[in-house]
Amino acid sequence: MRYRKAALILLLVVLVATAAAAGYRCVQLRSLEGRIENRWSRAEGELYNRVELTGELLVLVEEYAAHEEDIIDEAQAARQHFLDVEGYREQIRANRRLDIAVANLKVISESYPDLQADQDYVELRQQLARLENRIAVERIRYNESVQVWNNALRSFPTVVMANLLGWRLKPYLQIPPRSQEVPTPQM
After folding, report:
1. What predicted TM-score, i.e. pTM, was given to this entire model?
2. What domain range includes position 94?
3. CATH code of the domain in which 23 resides
4. What is the count of structural domains for the chain?
């Protein structure tokens, strides 16, 4: 009887300690999730700023290179697609498409000296370059937070708790691979 009571007390202590540890880990994960949401919010703001600048860039490129319809249409479609999607996973996918479209716009614009001499274009390219730097910083910060989250979810016993609570790995905000085909200007 004495051993049974001691075993029961030990079992109760172990259960309480396990519940406390799980609760503490849950609080830590909620904090990490909040950090990721904060980082995404900052990155998302910069991405929306780029969408706006891309619209201005499209207007200028269209004035000088109207016959580059395919590239201009793709850039407009990528920009609109980013504005239409909801949720960070979809926005990350849409951002990849927009990255490629902006890169293609930059490539074709190099073939138009009049466009490159336009003061508005020069200023817009400088703003875009500064914005791309800010996006890179926010991308790094977001990805660092996602890495901590994903590593935490992969560790035992957190993986069990994460599956029970429906927590999933978060996607990284990646730099898209450069387009395999470099657009050629249609003069």
Report:
1. 0.78
2. 2-165
3. 1.20.1440.20
4. 1
